[in-house]
Structures
1.
Amino acid sequence: MNSHKVFLGLGSNKGNREEYIRSALKKISELKETSIKKVSSLYETKPYGNTEQNDFYNLVAEILTRHDIKNLFSELKRIEREVGRIQLDKKWQPREIDIDILFFNDWIYSDGQIEIPHKDLLNRDFVLVPLIEIDPNFVHPYLGISISEIDFSSVQKNIICKFPFEYK
């Protein structure tokens, strides 16, 4: 069985944001047959969607995993709960941790619950910029161009600042 190249977006805007992200990364690294290959810098960002909430910390991680897409999704939802995410009944609410699958190999996939590439990826500078940082040559499967070639000049600017982030 081959490993899958996956990009994850992680974000937090409640409590100790950096600690929630570190805890999630640690749990991801402990998944069977999964390893973290690269982690971007940490970006402080204005909230997206519901703007009446605290600023986020966001980053992107590249992992290699042998989990299939549905199993990985389930494992990431479990990790969110273990790290402390409380399930809310409204979209765009503050959260302890959010883990999104941005890309899974170069697949285009949708099953009503999971959509790959992530459906809102091209509207989020806080995802595109860290992706460019860790893999500028990754080719977007719909667009057929590398992440670094995407014109996101019209994308709303949510990034406030960038912090070095060491994960190990």
2.
Amino acid sequence: MAVVREPSLEDAADLGRVHQQCWVETYAGLVPSEFWEHSTEARRIGMWERMLRRSDPKRRLVVAEGEGGIVGFALVGAALAREHPDAPPAVPLEVRMLYLTRSQHGSGIGQQLLDAVLFDGEAAQLWVAEQNGRAQAFYRRNGFVPDGIRDPDAHRGTDLAAIRMLRPASRVD
């Protein structure tokens, strides 16, 4: 298993690298080659530097660290309408990101990440690429179901559509 911890600003470069690696591993055959001219490791590092400098009391962000460094991360926060303007949030909490390098798929680290940011019984929503069946299966195992909402333009500059999945609140004994 990996060590799951909160990241610091010093992790921005590793987060950007892993974020880009996960995108390439997952979507290289599904997006046009021009997409990668704008989706770069450098841009992702900058995004992580900005995010880690900002305080957000509603944000839950963790990284998974293996022997070679960061291998994945998860982010939960307030559901945002701006990313999917035609679909107002169904619940206040959203799993915004959960990425794990392909070499770690099936290791249990994805579950560790989700469990660290989304607590038992919490209702949440997330958006997942319609073409990413593996991720959808993972979320279904964790109580998420598609609610029928689809965003065909979720990732501008690609043919990737996203579907929304919801997990209802449940009573925890």
3.
Amino acid sequence: MNNLLIALLPSALQLNLDFILFIHFILVTIFIGVIISVRRPVGVAFAWIFIVVTFPVLGISLYILIGDRPVGRSLTRKIKRMNHEYAQITEEMRQAYAGDREQLPPESRAISLLAESKNGTPVVAGNLLELHTDSLKILQCFIDEINQAQKSLYLEFYIWALGGDADLVGEALIAAAKRGVVCKVLLDSLGSKDWFKSKWPARFRNAGIQVTEAMPIQVGRFQFRRADLRLHRKIFVVDGAIVWTGSMNMVDPRTFKQDSGVGKWVDAMVRVEGPIASQFELTFSFDWSVDNPKVTHFNDRNPPATPIAGAAIAQQLASGPVYRDDILYQVMLSAIIDAREELIITTPYFGPDDGLLQAMMASARRGVKVTLIVPKLNDSTLVAWSSKSYYADLMDSGVRIAEFHGGLLHTKSLLVDKKGAIFGSVNFDQRSLRLNFEISLMVYNVDFCTKLEKLIESYLAQSDYVDPIQWAKRPRWMHYLENAAHLSSPLL
């Protein structure tokens, strides 16, 4: 009997192995079909196919978690329902401010039309812009704004970190709520996870501040909602007439991520006073209505502020999955292609697709002075290595690359010909351009662009330009590591 069992054992193992290989083949085939069924960039599709075929269990698990762009069925239905109301309001805005576009030079009108397409908001004249570059002073400005507010305070951030002067902002907000100011706080569930676990949510609600957790991560629902789609906007609206936006989260740079080994985070924000604040308030109202399960319609908004004579023309650009797909990408691509003299990009995370990369290279080769400024040290090792994989091609086409060594440069900006700027929460990577809910301020004003240029010059003073000759001499293993990391760039 024992001899018979021993004789049959190899056959049983072979059957089990054949069965496992059959199941592997079926699962991989099914998921390749799923990947192909959704039209997506070729690089993204092939990256997922490679992962699923090479590491089927891990690859399939990752694809279920982050492979598609769903925000959940119920949330998708609510976004589409809210978008009807949003579309009515933006159409009224486009009609009311149609004349403001005529104040733009002809080369700026086309991109402004693109930015307002698919229910976007129009260019608006009469906005007073102030560029702020000191994070601690910005936090104090937030406190001052809160102390002076009369009607409403709406805050929407990806991260509200604990400690430092960020806590003082919270104390000021509590005091404002107690004196009757309507206060609403909308924070991303993942970015502000430590804040939501702290005492602050209860303190806010006890003081009468309304708090909503955006895009909550729910265990067991990953198959219905992609976990890494995040609310990445930075918006602070005061009384419907003033808005702050830019790259800075509600964090104190002296305490935020000090263990990451990259130094302090370097940010910038714009304070805008004027009618464009109502556009940012509209975006906040949209996000608040979508993420707050108790809200079924937009709440009343403050009327637009009176335009300030001779002040800047500006435009809000809101984007995100499900609605306004690819408009942000198209605007960025158009801005690069439209550059005639100079193009400067600052971004902490650089991971363009082939279209954006080719546009940058083509601009440099046709004589545009193209400069890319990125941090020398990055809090994401994979992103850092992947970013470096683009250096050789960019420098070969004439793009200058400057690595900032004064901390983690977190400012996200695009300056075109010193006449137009895109400034906000958008990183120059596929996550910001295609996945996250982002916000940008498009400015058509030379004075503001001059101030932004001076800020960029201060960054360049703390940067080292990458030498193409020395870069070519780097160790071969670095070249392989960068290219390996590059394979993951469509998924970052």
